[in-house]
Predict the 3D structure of the following.
Amino acid sequence: MPTVAVRRAPGSPRLATAEVRRRADRMLAALGEAASDLSVLLVDDAEIERLNARHRRKRKPTDVLAFPMDDVATPPRGRARLLGDVVVSLDTAARHARERRHPLVVEVTHLLAHGLLHLLGWDHRTDEEEARMNEATADLVAAATHPQGPRHTPRRRLRDRA
C-alpha cells in the first residue's frame, strides 16, 4: 500500500488507522498519485507542539503539519514518488470536530487532504491561493468519502488548478 498510517497518541480520541489509510489512498488515486508513498502520523497535542516548535518555531499545538520528501517540481523517474509525511493532532482535530458538530473522521479527512496538498506544493499565502486550496481540499475529501461518486472528477480539476 502506498499509505502508511501510524498512531502515536496515547490518551487521545480513538480513530482507526485502517480507515485513515483507505481515505488517503483514495485521495492519492484521485490525484493520479496511486503509486506514490505517503506517511500519516496521528499524534497528540504534546507531540505536534514539539514538532511545530522544532520545524516552524511556533510553541503551540497545531492541527496538521506536512513534511515533503521528493521535490514536487521534478518527480523521480522509474521509481515510486515519496510524497512525505502528514502529521495530524487527534486532540486538536477532536476539538474542531466538536465545534463543527461532525465526527472525528470527517475532521481528520479534511486535515489529511489539506496536508497532502501542501506536500504537493500547494499553499495559501494569498486569498486567491486559499480559495483554490479550500476547493481542492473539498474535492479530495469528496474523493476520500465517495470514491465512485458522480459529483466531480478530482484528478482533472486538481491538476487544472495546480
In short: The beta strands are 3-8, 37-43, 64-68, 82-89. The two ends are 25 Å apart (CA to CA). Residues 3-161 form a domain with the Collagenase (Catalytic Domain) fold (CATH 3.40.390.30). The CA atoms of residues 6 and 41 lie 5 Å apart.
